[in-house]
Design brief:
By secondary structure, the chain is of the alpha+beta class. It has eight helices and 20 strands. 28% of the residues lie in helices and 26% in strands. The protein binds zinc ion.
Length: 373
């Protein structure tokens, strides 16, 4: 295992943070997987999974079983991890800018499509190399001015040439679920099976500012479609945001189980040799991200949930009551679709319009920006 420290731009005099990456196997020898944890710094299950995965990868490397390269960043957001405010850790947004740590990644398709039109050719493998080189040049040309921009650039430089990217997050209170782009479903459905995902949510772009996983898989299917009939472009990167249950689902048992599932998936993707079990049967079908219902509080009040993550709910089913103890008003909140309730809030206090929970349904019911802010 090679350890590399990546110093970030100094945000204030006397302050210096860094990212650390672990590299297993040989660069360029075979396929590359990139795995990072806790880009939202208050989402800790991934950090523990990364710890256990590291042990498995170190042992595999010592046995000479690495067929490709695995780059592991066990703590992807030192900025967010340092943001403790009045005893609460603020890990989703940078305090300095209020920007989400998992947004504003480069839109490589828009940045590169015109430049690539002049240099792509008939050789698909060569096109893959040319596109990755162009991505790298675009990243190196960024000249970040802030620590946050530097962190994004550093993570992208580590990940942009990977064939597989796993971005390990979690939700507030949730069952295992994953976000993928539709074109990546064939490659990533086996990972959902191995992790025991209860929702596998696909989109063709989430419609908002670019998240980490979209930045990496999105350009390939968009460039493939854009140059269709002219030049062949492979789907060279399959990336996913893995939601490792809820924020307090941090345990050795879960982390070992998830690390072993990821390890077996890497074996099935020819990154590591050795025997591995068949993927278990899927616990869910893939459903559109546009088919998720975001259930909102009708008014402010105390939330009394009548459902738990993992419940299979029917339209009309009671999900929660929101109670205003001053007026005495108690409002029943019900599902409007059938589906799996895959995540709910960690708080029990709702402001008006507060998102209470989310249900994964089969039919598309939404458009526009499909992700939370
Ligand atoms: Zn997250």
């Amino acid at each position: 295992m090679r350890i590399t420290h990546h110093p970030l731009l100094c945000p204030a005099l006397g302050t210096q943070r860094q990212l650390t990456s672990f590299t297993f196997g040989e660069t360029g020898a075979g396929p590359k997987a990139y795995i990072q944890a806790s880009l939202h710094a208050d989402e800790l299950p991934g950090m523990l999974v990364a710890h256990h995965l590291r042990g498995l990868l170190e042992a595999a490397e010592q046995r000479g079983e690495l067929l490709g390269e695995v780059v592991l960043v066990p703590m992807a957001n030192p900025i967010g991890l340092s943001q403790t405010v009045m005893h609460h850790q603020i890990g989703r947004f940078e305090l300095a800018t209020m920007e989400n740590f998992n947004r504003n990644y480069p839109d490589f398709f828009e940045v590169l499509k015109d430049e690539l039109a002049a240099v792509l050719g008939a050789d698909e493998a060569e096109n893959k190399r040319v596109i990755r080189a162009a991505m790298r040049r675009a990243l190196l040309a960024q000249a970040p001015k802030t620590e946050l921009q530097c962190q994004r650039q550093t993570l992208m430089l580590l990940a942009h040439d990977a064939d597989l990217v796993l971005d390990l997050h979690c939700d507030f209170e949730a069952v295992m679920h994953m976000y993928v782009e539709q074109a990546c479903l064939p490659r990533l459905t086996p990972l959902a099976q191995r992790l025991g995902a209860r929702a596998l949510l696909w989109a063709n772009g989430s419609g908002g500012s670019v998240s980490f996983d979209e930045a990496l898989s999105g350009p390939w299917w968009r460039l493939r479609d854009h140059f269709s009939g002219r030049w062949p472009v492979p789907l060279a990167c399959a990336s996913t945001t893995v939601e490792l249950r809820g924020q307090v689902d941090v345990s050795t048992a879960f982390a070992q189980q998830d690390a072993q599932a990821i390890y077996a998936y890497l074996q099935s993707e020819a990154l590591i040799s050795g025997a591995f079990a068949e993927a278990p049967l899927a616990l869910c079908e893939a459903t559109p991200l546009a088919g998720t219902e975001s259930v909102l509080a009708p008014h402010s009040g105390v939330i009394a949930f009548a459902c738990v993550p993992g419940d299979v709910v029917r339209a009309g089913q009671l999900l929660a009551e929101v109670v205003d103890p001053i007026s005495g008003q108690s409002s029943k909140v019900t599902a409007s679709i059938n589906g799996v309730l895959y995540a709910r809030q960690g708080l029990r206090w709702a402001t008006a319009g507060f998102e209470l929970c989310r249900i994964a349904g089969r039919e598309s019911i939404r458009s526009g920006n499909l992700l939370s802010p």
